[in-house]
Protein 1
Amino acid sequence: MRKSTALPAALALTAATLAGGAAPAAAETTLSTVPLEAGANLHHNTATVNYERIDGAVNSVKITYVLITSGERDCAWVQWNDPKAVGGDGWTNLTPEPSCHGIGMGESREVIIKAPAGHPLKVRLAAYHSDSADVVHKDIARL
């Protein structure tokens, strides 16, 4: 009976490779940031949206963090262009409440947004004056 040394040699090589810091290939997600800005002076609104692409998914991202600071005389939301939005203007809020009167708010999120292929995913900063329900200042960016 003949003994093979190929298998122990392969195991030794694999163990040495792993011990040297090499790891099996894994999918890496890159965190991306979108800055948004709308209005001026007392109506200056800003927002930042952090997100990651979802590997293997078509037209899907995971929102990980949203930061909004409204103007002193505004309320501001960060929204995305949801193809399934019910009523309204086709935009869905990414946070449960707006930032109002110059108060900033940051929220860690674990929200997955997705749309059919061909529908560009976008986020917008939508600011309203305190005495109005109309979007007065906005900035839109593609994810």
Note: The CA atoms of residues 31 and 52 lie 5 Å apart.
Protein 2
Amino acid sequence: MLTATWLEPIPGLWRDEAAHRYWLGDHLFPVSITGVLAHGLSETAKRAIEAKRPIWEPRGITVHAALERYSQARFLVGKSPADALLEAETVPGHHPYRDWILPLLQLPLWEEVQVIASERLGCCLTRNVAGAFDGAYVSPALSERQGQPVRVLYDLKTLSAHGRPYSTAAQLGGYMVLEASQGNHYELGQTIWSKPGEASCSTFYSREQCLSAWAAVWSSYCLSHRPF
């Protein structure tokens, strides 16, 4: 398998988990990627999301934590897949969400790629925005096919049994912009979907699709919040 290096964290960048705010040293970022995306939602959509927060929030936090624990154990520390799976089971409160977690961690994808980041914090001082994305990997198969390393930035979404996939191109594009400001380039974006009893990967979004979708959202946000 192609050797890939785990990305180093950005020095001084941290997140206030309770407030969901990002800091670089003593600089507080006024908005996150998710905050920019929320600006484009209707009030009806926002109310619908908030009404179901008690359901999706603990599920999302727990499943994301399990994937982070697994990814770091397997791809950063170098544990076997079986041991990494055991490591993921140490996440507090994981048991009610095992139907989401186990299929996710047993995706064939993890046998085919080298993960280089998990729950990575990013920022851009020029745009004064920050955020955290779920992960990134290098694909040896795609890299060999294209004759150069192919890096994929991915986002994990959890759904109910009847939930439907949707486009995350704008969100992926926002994270690509943050990473580009740090010198990290991604050729593709992808969504990983986790539902009870199943997990799947979306088709790839091109870098251009992601950046175009993000540009539309960012422009709308700036017109409203930064008219200068």
Note: The first strand starts at residue 13 and ends at 16.
Protein 3
Amino acid sequence: MSYPKTYRSYRRTGPTYPWSIVPSTEKLPETLAEHDVVIRIRAVALNYRDFAMLKEGRYPVPVDPNGIPASDCAAEVVAIGNAVTKFAIGDHVSPTINHAHLLDTPEERDLEDIAAGGNGPGVLAEYAVFEEKVLVKLPAHLSWEEASTITCAGITAWVALGALRDPTKGTTALFQGTGGVSMFALLIALAAGIKPIITSSSNEKLDRVKKISPEIEGINYKTHPDVAAEALRLTDGKGVDYLINNTGGNSVPSDLKTLRTKRGTLSLVGFLEGFEAKWDSNVFLTLIVKAVKVQGILSGSRKDFEDLNRFLDEKLVSLEPLIDRVFAFEDSVAAFEYLETGQHVGKVVIKI
């Protein structure tokens, strides 16, 4: 399969703030390195990080000010280098989010992160070239739009749920908000037999989410400001086994009260309310007495991506409920603006 000499993309307009994204034209190499794979990108899913990178002080990791944004895509292999063995033309693939952490070995943990769409190459483009080692095959039953949502939100949710290494019978989980990570975690939970609870300040959003399955419980934190008390009520006083915190440090005291004693895991994955938090000494006492686990999650490895894809494939999990709205490639700026409003439930996708 042939590919063109040039292709369309979007790039950030740094280094002077405020940044935006603008159309750009890129060149594809005439000759491929032996392990290179050329992909034709079919759909891109946006994450909070993508627009946060455009805002001064909103994203606390290195970002290429003029780089191509976005990390999540579904693509088709259109050309391969002469030493590529894992992929063939026509395969459906996606690059993993951290190009330095593929197998999560001790050696890799000492390497500097190369984050797709951040300080590494992004995917908001018609084509891209990656080394085969950073690519994974996507589940065959998913549409381009569904498959594009896995890379960041899916892997983060998967790791936060312990990659389902522990038995799931009788397990419950609470997910903050209705964004991509929470909604992906909800779909994984349902497929694995985990009882999900999701929070929002909008009854409209909660009603929309609960239509996915009668197993889903919802908590409106505006009408039930004591989320821990409501979660304990919904779990017969036991608490939840998993809690995904997307908002930041201020809810951690409540989160710890929500967790199941000696079994609960709190995963800190987001900072929608900023980086600062005010805690009193009771937080540390609660952590010790309840003997729960707190972990920070940036995302996951290529192995995590492959394991999640295997789970989605075996369970034939539909990711259609995850998709809130699909934009045309030419409307990418509008897609970023819509994401920033926070009106979405799940993922905002750009079709290319």
Note: The chain has a mean pLDDT of 93.
Protein 4
Amino acid sequence: MNILVTRTARRDLTETYDFIASSNPDAARRVLDQLFEVIRQLAVGDLKRPEVRLVDGRRARRWSIAPYRIYYRRSARQIVIVWVYHQARRPIEK
């Protein structure tokens, strides 16, 4: 299955890495490794989650790996990572 990471999700991952790496680069790499492992599992496994409605009206599925939430859409051929969101930020769900 194809994995597509949107520009927004890439920005989220970069910001996450930069924030953590400013004080602990090793921890930043571990966090990104964990997030990418979950993304790979979402692509190969049948880890369907219920859809949630986002504040912009779109729908996506959500997988939590505390304190992060990975929002994604899945089709037969690809998984699209929409956001990688830290739970302390302003809510993006309705």
Note: The chain has a mean pLDDT of 89.
